[in-house]
Amino acid sequence: MNGQELASLPGLLAVTPPRRSARGREHDNLIVYFMLAGNTPFSIEELRQLMDSAAKLFHQLPGSLTSAMRKAAESINTTLLESNLASAGRGQHVLGLVVLAVIRHNQCTLLLSGPTHAVWVSEGQSRHIHDPALSGKGLGSGQTIQAYFSREPYHSWREKGFVRVMMQTGRTRDPRLPDVPTLDELMNEYKTAGGPRRLAALALAATDFGRPIVAPPGLAADKSKLLRDAFMKTMKDPELLAEAKNKNFDITPSGGEELEALAKEVVRQPPEVVEQVQKLLGQ
Questions:
Q1: pLDDT (tens digit, 9 = 90+) per residue, 44-85?
Q2: I need a surface site. Which of 100, 104, 174, 246 has the fewest CB within 10 A?
Q3: Three-state DSSP class for 101?
Q4: Is the pLDDT of residue 35 over 50?
Q5: Do 95 and 195 have their domain in common?
Q6: Residues in CB range of 154: below 8 A, 6 or more apart
Q7: What DSSP designation does 175 have?
Q8: What is the rounded average pLDDT of the residues 81-101?
Q9: Structural domain for 24, as ranges
Q10: Both 259 and 144 in a single domain?
């Protein structure tokens, strides 16, 4: 590093969950692989402090695994962005390339940010994990990060038919899983009561929202309709669909009216349902 040979590999950290891990992190073993690109000098100690801080933050965060991984990467991004803003006048710049791997029991979840690669090797076969369109340029280039998530051996098992998906949490069936029922369908079939239905609707609403595009409050109805129609037409554009297919993107848009109805359903949930969801998410 910095032109010096080292006896050990810098930028690699493996951490087992500490005794006082947050709820949901008790079985998450974290591996951090971190590299820097650019001309801003960083010492080995500074590199290690960045990784140690991110790893410590990860195990302190309750809730979903991917959210904790993203926030750990965001903590590195904040430090690098501050460094870039402070050194811009000197012509110095740095980008962080990071791979986070969390091993929980027999499953591995990956986060890649920056032009990074990972290879999953299992049963004599390998899978190249790399998506520059989603992983972006790297950490330190902006206030928000771009990250690509992957999970193994789920993808390999699903492709080989080794596992069977029993249920989908979305309100509509994924075209890739046409024979797998949704949770709504199962609740209808088994006549689930209102309380559990409201709990499921609130807990899983983020799946249906996806990445919503919003406008400011008070937007005129005619302008709202214009934007909604334009968006749905764009989602059917042949060139856009061809580019999405080439980049392995899934295009499954939801209309504005559908998301507006979902938002109203979410905010109408009674306090006791909100409290139950917060307990489930460890917040």
A1: 888 889 999 999 999 999 988 999 999 999 999 999 999 999
A2: 246
A3: strand
A4: yes
A5: no
A6: 107, 163
A7: T
A8: 92
A9: 12-160
A10: no
